[in-house]
Amino acid sequence: MAMRITRHFAAFASLAVPVLAAESASADVIYHVYNAVIPNNIDGIYLNVETNLFASAAGLVAGWDLNPYGTSTTAMSWFAAAAPSGCVTGLGGGTTVAVANLPLASAVSSVQTFGNTASSVTAGGWVLNAVNAFGFRFRGADGLTHYGWGRIQIGATMGVRTLVDIGYESIPATPIAIGSEGGPPPDYNPCAATNPSVSVGSNNLPLNQTTAVNLDLTASSCSFLVRKANYFKFTAPVDGSYTFNTCASGVDTRIAILDGCAAGSAILACNDDTCGFSSSVTISLNAAVPVYLVVGSGTKVDLPSPISVAVIPPPIPDCVNAAPAAFGANVFDNFATVTPQSVVTNLAGTTSATINKAMWFKFTPGTTGAYNISLCGVNGDSMLAIGTVCPGVGGTFQSIAYNDDVCLVAGSATSFLASFIDATNGGATGTFAGFPLTQDLVAGTDYYIVAGSFGATTSLTGTLTIGGPDQPTGNPADLNGDGFVTAQDLAILLGNWGGTGVGDINQDGTVSAPDLGAMLNAWG
What we know:
The structure is a single chain. By secondary structure, the chain is mainly beta. It folds into three domains: 2-177, no CATH class; 201-312, Sandwich (Jelly Rolls), CATH 2.60.120.380; 318-471, no CATH class. The protein is 5% helix and 34% strand. The chain has helices spanning 2-10, 487-495, 513-521, and strands at 19-20, 22-26, 29-37, 46-48, 53-55, 68-69, 77-78, 86-90, 98-99, 107-108, 114-115, 130-139, 145-154, 161-169, 176-177, 201-205, 215-216, 225-235, 240-245, 253-258, 267-271, 280-285, 290-297, 307-312, 323-324, 328-333, 341-344, 352-363, 372-374, 382-387, 399-403, 420-421, 447-453, 461-467. A hairpin with a 7-residue loop joins strand 27 (341-344) and strand 28 (352-363). The two termini are 35 Å apart.
């Protein structure tokens, strides 16, 4: 434990810079806005909520009260401050008791249990790509116990997080409501960025049943009132039919799907009782177009919070989860891949072929120009295609270029069964030449690349190499060259963790924690 404490206090101390955040006060509640990135490292942020100072090393923040930290992408750790300290623990909609994601307006007081168990989606019910709220207690400068709350924006993983704001009660031993900035609880805003979003799968969603108001749909074909309506944003990952239901909750709900969160938004679908008194609705949605799920009570009785909401998607094509491809070398194998993919094999789009054990990549060029994509040197008979549209399950990939055979496989001077795409497909001719990439790739545009085997059971190992014009070099953490440091760059780095080459930002020969720290410092 002594080693853990020493490392935690010492690591990255040279990078720490205390920062003063904006402050407001109302009644006896003190409220601060931070919008500060919590580094995904062993230090994170040390924060003294009364002095309003925070930094990346404990020695720079005397009497610190909160310390979220950690290097994991699946959980966020909390280090204990001087007793009494800690955050409110519970299921928070998760399956394991931990520092919990709490609903707006819930109380933080002496009746809660406090601790520092690491938070995650399953532990404490934290939600990715959403603002999560937590409660805490701390020992004030007066030596007494105070209660507070905070909000943290979580990104695509638990390792991507930003401390949004903090509120605390200046009067010791006084309870505080999550979200309170003093005075009465804030009005519920259906369009607030802090509202939880809903995603594909099982969701445990906290409900505001203090200030949320009714949604009156009695004049529509729905013919009902959604009591204390809560709004949850949903963005479909692919086109198709989606089912939203509260069946697992077993309580009397009413739900609706709207095209927006503002008053007067169009009603796309609604339901009252389908699975007992619970609700279910199925609707066709377009990819990347947000809609709002509205959940409320069917009676004057409040619903349990959090409430269980399931989102059942259409079958998800493999290309949705395409691996980010970097400019240069991308090592891969398709041993674990079994899905075949039909692809267009001529410019007219009239012929097709099947790429077996298909591996999907997504490449975003940083510079517009002529590119080449190579599987030369793989260990077997390969196939390769590139396009701009992720096809649905069972659909044919609309290639903008395709090649089967043109260059040598590994260890052979005569077997030209590996694939290569450029403006001439390496000069390929004949049945397996395919058609070349005669158009420039456009900077900032996502391109899908599918690589795989000619044989249905043959696995490949090798390197997908992308060549072309020089990429922007202003930021070495921009691994995919799209001009931004985002989750795609993080995925590339983590995919080569412990390796060399792509992701070795500091060029010390290994992709490791210092490279991750450099990326997070360059985020955005």
